[in-house]
Amino acid sequence: MRNRSSNKSLLGASLYACACLSVAQTPAGKPATVAAPPIAVPPPVASAGADALADALTCRISYERYPGLMQEIRDEREEDFRQAYRQHSQPMLDVYRLEEPISAWGNESDVIVIAPNRVMMAVQGSLDAVTAQLEHALEQSSESPLSGALDDQHALVIFNADAPGLEGMVLLGCEYRIPDISLLEDPADAWRKHPVVPALPAKP
Fold it and tell me: How far apart are alpha carbons 10 and 13 in whole angstroms?
């Protein structure tokens, strides 16, 4: 039988080192990502009292749960996700403001940013400061969110925000590498799609 605590501690330490290296070598403004080899763990499932947003930020949404993620978040946080605080088309982002801040990866924020395949929190401060908080949290926790959470479909991302209204903030969260499903696919967001212009009839 595997020693789960030992495995988690070793994996957390290893991935923590990878995180530091990725941040250090990533040019300013470019997302840093941290991924681990696939881990044989049972996929997480939704349960009563679960916090889908917290799970999404910490890469704990399984392939099976991913298609209904935004609806699950809206059901649990109806007031927070009733309407986007701000929307961008280039790049595509929805920004939400929470009534109460949420904590993840050792940081706290009340600003949530949803991209087509990312769920992130916008944290006030410099990239170095936010990264230091992340590193500290990973060092202090033997039950690190990285343990068993990152694989070929999930990656930790951290980078400077540059969208209007997010200047001076750092985006931190999870990238879901699950093809053909966008978290921003919503009929109410049809304004984002380029209209199809019918072809002119051929002249006789």
Answer: 5
Question: How many CB atoms are located within 10 Å of the residue 93 CB?
Answer: 24
Question: Rounded to whole angstroms, how far apart are CA atoms 16 and 24?
Answer: 12
∠ CA(9), CA(173), CA(21), 5° rounding? 55
pTM of the model: 0.69
Two tokens at 63? 């392939």
The number of beta carbons lying within 10 Å of the beta carbon of residue 171 is 25
Q: If we measure between CA atoms, which residue out of 96, 196, 116, 100 comes closest to residue 157?
A: 116
The pLDDT-based confidence of 103 (bands split at 50, 70, 90) is: very high
12 pLDDT more than 70: no
> How far apart (Å, rounded) are the C-alpha atoms in residues 7 and 200?
64
pLDDT at 154 over 60: yes
User: Average pLDDT for residues 131-148, to the nearest whole number?
Assistant: 73
Residue type, 166: L
Element (H, E) at 10: helix 4-25
The bridge status of strand 86-89 relative to strand 32-34 is unpaired
Length of the chain: 204
Residue 133 pLDDT more than 80? yes
Query: How buried is residue 104: exposed, middle or buried, by Cβ count under 10 Å (0-12/13-18/19+)?
Result: buried
